[in-house]
Structure formats: C-alpha cells, structure tokens
Amino acid sequence: MADMTWTIAPEPYDSPAAAALWRAYYTEVSDRWYLLHEGRRTDPAELEREIAAHPGDDLAPPGGQLLLGRYAGAPAGSAGVRLLDADTAELTRVFVLPERRGRGGAPLLVAAAEEAALALGARRIVLDTRGDLVEARALYARLGYTETGPHNTDPYAEHWFRKELMPARAVN
C-alpha cells in the first residue's frame, strides 16, 4: 500500500513541479473569475502572458520561500511567502490540486508558510483573496486569520487577512 501522507519542503520557484502547480493554480483562479464575470474561460494567450509575467522569483530566498506539498510522493500543492517589510510577510499561491483536496494539505501548507515567514524574520503575515474563493476565506478564518482592511491595491483582491505570528515554544 502506498504511503498516503503529506510532506512539505522548500522548492525552487522555477522547478518543473513548482511551474506545473503555478499553471494549475493560475488556470483555476483565472477561469473561476472569467466564468463568474464574463461567462467564459481564460483566453489561452492571456493565460500564457500572465504566467510568464509572474514567475515567482519573489518567492526565492532571501526575501521569500516557496513550499511544495507532496501527497504520496507526488506534487500536489503549494504555498509561498514573501517579505513586504522587515516585520510583514505575505502569504500567496496557497493551492492544492482538486484531486488532493479534503486530505488535510492546505492547513499543513499554511502552517509551513507561517514557519517560513517566521524564519524570514516576519512577526505577522497578511494575504488577500477574492470573494468568490469562499473555500480560501473559510480556510484562513479557521486557521486564525482576521479579516482586515486592504494592505495592497491588487484589482482582484476583495478580502484581506492578517495573523500575528508566534514563534514555536521549545518543549521541555
């Protein structure tokens, strides 16, 4: 029987596995927006332009980190953090492949991203999401994120969240 567990580890933003997950993430969120607002899927040329325009180099050390989640050894999800300032990191690219959802990966990815943000020196973590991404909003609320006012001017952002980070305490 195969091991059906999650492992999460840092991954170069430009690795083949990270690139495939970024494409899956962007395709899903873009298609959801266009289907909701324009009744169509993302134009393939636009998808390629946007993926190329946002390669994820801001998720590379020393100011960021991309984490890749593997389920049963296969790439299945991602989460990234990037420093906005000395005390604040932004959570981004939280994604689990549809066929791997419901198996506990998203909370593990977010927790790993919070640890990465702490390692980068952040004391708080912020994020934005859209109104139609109700699953994401529910996840962040469940994980202790508080909805706040805007921290950016992203034209697609409709909800902003933040969480104060607490370093893990040593166990005696």
TrEMBL record:
InterPro entries reported for this sequence: Acyl_CoA_acyltransferase (IPR016181), Bact_Acetyltransf (IPR050832), GNAT_dom (IPR000182)
UniProt keyword list: Acyltransferase, Transferase
Domain N-acetyltransferase: start-end pairs: 20-166
GO molecular function, one term: acyltransferase activity, transferring groups other than amino-acyl groups
Record's protein name: N-acetyltransferase
Native source species: Streptomyces capoamus
Organismal lineage: Bacteria, Bacillati, Actinomycetota, Actinomycetes, Kitasatosporales
